Structure formats: structure tokens, C-alpha cells
Amino acid sequence: MSSPATQSAPLVRPGRWIADGAACTVTFAVRNFGIRTVTGQLPVTSADVTIDGHSQPARIRANLDVRGIETGHRRRDADLRGPRFFDTDRWPSISFEATGIRPVGTGWTVDGKLTVKDITSPVRLEVSEVRPTSPDPASPVSLRATGSVDRRTAGITGGPGFLIGHAISLWMAAEFSPASRPSTC
User: Fold this and answer.
1) First to last CA, the chain
2) Is 37 exposed, middle or buried (0-12, 13-18, 19+ CB in 10 A)?
């Protein structure tokens, strides 16, 4: 039996894989008033991964619909959609594109660029728990990713730092299927 540090991500069929929107969640958390944490979710409108001939990801892209931001508080959600924060009338989506991908343990470290309101900032995601849903190399693959971004670097400067924290933690859970299968994203 090998240790988790020496295991590698499962073999996945080469080609383009598309996220199933019904099986995708992007959750975020930010400190509020320095004492409590506000969490929320953003809908994934599209996400795809291109797997090379060595069963490694060669390209990763995703788009999120900021108009669908949900924190469980209507007024806060409306404020986040407004001009002080995301200004969703002008910029309804956030995009992510990987700039570097390297295998680490049973997953990958993904460096990329996050574009929010025409401002591109670096972000690093740690992808783990990459699991095929069956032994068939063409079966859907589920994964989890975590990361963080400084909201100021990403162009979200509304609200003073003592009220709204600068670091935003990110969690993503997704399921990807070969592009030849129908997708709901």
C-alpha cells in the first residue's frame, strides 16, 4: 500500500471534460466585522478541463455567474451585486483560467488568473479528492479544490477592511464528464 504522498491522481481519459452544473458548487467565505464569517455561493455557468495524453490536466477554465450570488441575506446579496462591489449590470461573470498545473499527491496545484470586473489577479487552487465515479476511464470524475484570493487585488474594494476582510476563502466541488456526454452547465 502506498502512502497518500506517493499516490497519484487517477487516470482519466484524454480529451475535453465538461462540468455538470447540477453537481458544481463554489462556496466562499470572508470575515465580517472582524468577528464573524459570512459564507455564500456562486453558480458555475461553465467549466471544462482538457486532459492530455498522460492523463494530466493541460487546460482548465471556468465561469461563474455573479448575478446568482447567495449569502442567505437578500440585502447583502443586492449590495454585492451593486456598483460598490461586483457591479453585475456591467460585469455579470467571473472567469478563471489556469496558467500552470502540476501534480501534487493525489491531485494538482493549479495557478491561474481570476478575472473580476476586467481586473485579472493571480490565484492558486489546490485540487484534491480527484475520484472517478466508476472504474471506467470515461466515467464522470469528481474533485474538490480550495484556494483564496485578496478581494482588493481582484478589484472588489467596496467596504472598509475593518468591516469586510480582505482574504476570501474559496471551495469548489465539481463533477466532470467527457465532452461527448450531455452537460447541464
Assistant:
1) 38
2) exposed
Q: pTM for this structure?
A: 0.85
- pLDDT tens across 103-132, in order? 988 889 999 999 999 999 999 999 987 888
Cell numbers 493525489 label which residue?
106
- State whether residue 6 is helix, strand or coil: coil
Phi, psi torsion values for 42, nearest 5 degrees: -125, 135
Q: 21 — phi, psi (to 5°)?
A: -55, -35
Residue 2, CA distances (Å) to 105, 109, 126 in order:
11, 21, 21
Distances (CA, A) of 167 to 71, 135, 182: 17, 39, 36
